[in-house]
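To whoever is on call:

I kicked off a structure prediction for a single chain this morning and the downstream step that reads the tokens threw a length-mismatch warning. I double-checked the sequence; it's 544 residues and nothing unusual in it as far as I can see. Pasting both halves so you can look.
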Amino acid sequence: MQAEKRRSIARLSWVGLVVPVLGACVSTKPSVDTGVDGGAGVDAGPLPSCQLGQLCILVDASRPDHVISPLLFGDWLEWTDGDPNIGAGDAIWDQVANAPRAEIVSTLQPVGLSLIRYPGGTLSDFFLWNQAIGPDASRVPQVYPFAPDGGTAFLPYFGPDEVAQVTSSLGAQLLVTANIVTDTPQGAANWLRHYQDAGVQAKYWEIGNENYIPSGSWAQDEGYRAPVQYSALFDQFAQALRAVDPTVQVGMLGCPGCPGWDQGVLQAITQPADFMSVHNGYAPFASYVADTSSALEAMLADPVSIRGSFDALEGDLTEYGGPNAGINLAETEWGAGFNPSGAATDVQWAALNRSLASALYSALVFDLFFADPQIAIANHTNAVSPLWQADVTLSPTDGISDPTVSAFGHAFRLYADAAGGLEVPVQLRGAPTYSTTGLGFVPPLFDVPELDAAAVIAASADRLWIYVVNRSLTDDLTARVIALGYPAAGVQAVTSEVLNGASATAVDDPSTPNAVSVAQTSLTASDSLEVTFPAHSLTRLTFQ
């Protein structure tokens, strides 16, 4: 069973949160010179506007807000997944050949990963990096914290040097989770120096992993640190790392659902924090229920709850952060989670991790990330897996062969294109809504819009993307889409890319590699057009 999904995480329940109406879809003429659309002062004549009662998506590209952080498109690779036969780097490393599995790497490369988290979550609390380098014969078995006790250990074939090699081949950067439970500040500093000596850039360091969880398994008992204890460790690790490289980015742990944690840590640390790591993006994180549709609807509603959690985090930073009040937020674990429980229904239930609906949930989370300039880092869970939501899924028979881009991988690629672009606020009016009683991590939520949208001007400035998710499992929705202010000379072409399948539970895996796919069509070249968004779909409109 995949590591991080075995434990419960306390997360703020944003119960009863009502989604506000984002305002009427009525615009004024562009008045800001962005350097992208040709600037203000161009009389384009009467601008299109939404009609009363009309379902409408309005984007005014003359008013871009902030740059989309390229580090939002991260994932992770663990040093092991607990299987001594295939577990090295979640199967990306062939421990017999002592090399990356080329087919997996080549399948993963086009997805667009920018950041790899390593050596894991809870796995990092017991990982001693200096025992995982050099010839395999000289390496020391590392404690596996998801065993019933601390007596299980595996040889670390996928060590710091191996992950650096794979990360480089993917064109990504590294985010290292430092072990504050069984290692020392000097140990982390030595790891950074090891990378420096090898010419490996390791700029991002997260100090600890979920050390705010007070009890549960033996590993959580071992890993817990009270806020005052964690604060002292953060200062020591940050100081030791910066003594090696003053430019490293060091992250502290945040937890808005843990009473006293954010306040206690923010008020006690003396070293600057560059970012705050949080894990509030798993959904639904639940075991089997018979009503699959209700489970999917709950998951698809959860980004509303996640938004509330980020509001609480940003409130804590403002109130208690002092000099750290404006630091970035990092979602270093997130993803869909349908958890096997040992029941006969596990195969059916776990398949939902790889479903189209789970990919749409992730698209909604990316919309949330795009809208908040303070969220600058994100590492999804996992990059590769035959069981969990991953960019690339593998054969469930051997856990190694037949790498296939998943529904989530297709969605990831569409969003990763936006790295470095300019976010454009979106106004949405008239979307039908639904409510859910909740499931697992998802609280009861009310008046959740069935449509969600985000917009980005590409970093190349040669196109405007509008991303639209239809949460409805049953209904197509037609909306008036109005794209103002881009390009100045008028729209020359509009393209639609639709990620969809026969049902929300459709799965792309080695046995059905095209059950979920992206269909591309050309639309009328106009800055105002009606578009039908199919049930359970992600659509990316490209204006050029």
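Update from on-call: the warning came from a stale cache, not from the record. Cleared it. Sanity check on the structure: DSSP finds ten helices and 30 strands in the chain.
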